[in-house]
Amino acid sequence: MSDIRIAVKEPNGEHTEITAPTDMGLSLMEVLKANEYPIQATCGGMALCATCHVEVLEGPELKEPSDDEAYMLESLPTSTSRSRLSCQIKLTPEMEGLTVRIAAEDY
To answer: Could you give the CA distance from residue 87 to residue 59 in angstroms, rounded to a whole number?
Structure first.
């Protein structure tokens, strides 16, 4: 099976489950945009703008952010210890059950 389920916590508190392929090399940002979430992705996924900021609420441990991603996250006034740039999260089968919330400034 190459598809995983990801939950998105909506502003009203409900969770919406989306299905994402893991065999295409997609990032979480690309899947969120394809599902019509308000991700701007101004820089096209290069970790330069932080308009794809999400909070990881539940799920498997993700690899540490790169230096570029960490720098961008540090510049955000709403960044938390669970903040990530969705453009930097490449989807793998191990991410089954990931739950994220799109950052408040974007939603």
So the answer is: 17
Query: Rounded to an integer, what distance in angstroms lies between the CA atom of residue 89 and that of residue 55?
Result: 12
Instruction: Tokens for 11, please give them.
Output: 């502003």
What domains, with CATH codes, occur in the chain? 3-106 (3.10.20.30)
For residue 59, name the pLDDT band (cuts at 50, 70, 90).
very high
The rounded mean pLDDT for the chain is: 93
DSSP 1-35: --EEEEEEE-TTS-EEEEEEESSS--BHHHHHHHT
**What pTM does this model have?**
0.92
- pLDDT exceeds 90 at position 107: no
